[in-house]
Amino acid sequence: MQSNRDLIVEPIGLNVETLPKPLNWCELFGNDHPVEMEIGTGKGTFLTEQAKGRPGTNFFGIEWANWFWKYASDRLRRNGCLNARAVRAEALFFLREYVPDASLSVLHVYFPDPWPKKRHNKRRLIQSPFLEQAVRILVPGGRLQIVTDHQDYFEQIEPTVKASALKVIEYNRPGSAAEGEFVGTNFERKYRREGRPFYALAAVKGEGNGRGDAETRGRGEGEEGDCKLQSANCKM
Question: Catalytic pick from 6, 74, 113, 226?
Answer without folding.
Answer: 113
